[in-house]
Amino acid sequence: MPELPEVETIKRGLQPFLEQKTIQGLQVNRQDLRIPIPDNTRQMIQGQYVQFIKRHGKYLCVELANGQTIVWHMGMSGSVRVYHDDKEPYEPQKHDHIVMTTDAPATIVFNDPRRFGMFYTHPTEQIQNTPPFSQMGCDALQSTAKTLYPQLQNKKSPIKTVLLDQAIVAGLGNIYVCEALYKARISPFKPANALSFSEVETLSKHIDEILAEAIQKGGSSLKDHRMTDGSMGYFQNFFGVYGKKGVACPHCTCDPEQTGGIKQVKQAGRSTFYCSEKQK
Fold first, then answer.
1. How many domains does the chain have?
2. pLDDT of res. 264
3. Which of 65, 176, 239, 269 is the most exposed place for a label (fewest CB within 10 A)?
4. What's the rounded Cα separation, in Å, for the pair 238 and 174?
């Protein structure tokens, strides 16, 4: 599933072709996504001027001049492609469920093979008081040690599991939590309420750094994620531990032949990658 850096990359790729532009056409090729696309979606969107594109957590919010907001989630396999050059005209592909045209001019296509994404409208003034947004914590790019530490005080669950809770921090997913805990030298199994304020400060700093670097590198393309020009992100080339079971972690003196290298275990149904020597 695309995490914060991937969605932020998509947002930035869309802005020149959708923000402060008019949506001239909307074609819905398939309605049965995770939440079925309502029948009146074309009526609500086509012809509307886009005021802003925002992101909260893993969601895009496209605010329209008519007081409606498009709520857009990539799901497990969704990607967005922008066609804006006559040298590369849009050619329909399998799983292209949403096709928008704007006066940029551009054609914007939402492709989602597993159909676990979402695309619907909601009154803008009600967005923050309506699920899923009313149930989300602070966006990870705005989260600080001062906002995060109090939320951990009554959480006895492992810090890895707690950081994946979108009600605590919105936008973090499995990849970036593994990487942040590794950089902060914090065990993924440590109870969240056992972290000192100093440890939370260190963790928060590394969350910021990792997210910023991942965004700069276009996110991580492991399976489906692509930037809006169709190219792959490349932060996966800089992972410290994620997906590296059995190898030595960077900047560590441990011998994989003796320690087994980077470990992989299951936590709450998700794979956790960590260095047992470095993360205590």
1. 2
2. 97
3. 269
4. 15
